[in-house]
Design brief:
Elements (H helix, E strand, L loop, with lengths): L1 H61 L1 H23 L5 H14 L7 H27 L2
Helix pairs in contact: 1-2, 1-4, 2-3, 2-4, 3-4
């Protein structure tokens, strides 16, 4: 019986360490869940903003010579929205967003009409993948 009492503090230390590890894991997992549901709530809003801007770009591209400034402004707005979205995404969608962000931020100014159409197409493709990501999120957890 005396043997048990001698090792009780060691068992307590081990239990404390195990408890700290479990608490750390729970906090990490809670943060991951919070991030996932925050993104789940924000993606429709962000998608709607991007949708409106790309609609404006589509209209402005029809008469590019007179609307060149508006097209540049709308690409800058898209850049801002995608940059904000990059901080919220993770995994493959984040890689796609970063790649698109690099393309948008390194565009040559003044932008030629062909390059503007190409950039618009890339944003439209990203929007489609974002929409699919949102659908996938509905089915997970």
């Amino acid at each position: 019986m005396n043997y048990f009492w001698n090792y009780l503090p060691t068992f307590g230390d081990i239990a404390s360490i195990i408890g700290a590890i479990i608490s750390g894991y729970v906090l990490w997992d809670l943060r991951r869940l919070e991030r996932r549901y925050f993104l789940k709530a924000r993606i429709p809003e962000i998608f709607q903003e991007l949708d409106g801007i790309t609609d404006e770009i589509s209209e402005d591209l029809k008469n590019y010579q007179t609307n060149r400034r508006e097209v540049e402004t709308n690409f800058s707005r898209c850049e801002s929205i995608i940059r904000d979205l990059c901080r919220k995404l993770y995994g493959e969608p984040k890689k796609q967003a970063n790649k698109l962000l690099d393309t948008i931020s390194h565009r040559v100014k003044p932008l030629s009409k062909d390059k503007a159409y190409e950039l618009h197409d890339q944003i439209m493709a990203f929007k489609e993948s974002l929409k699919n990501y949102e659908k996938d999120m509905r089915w997970s957890q």
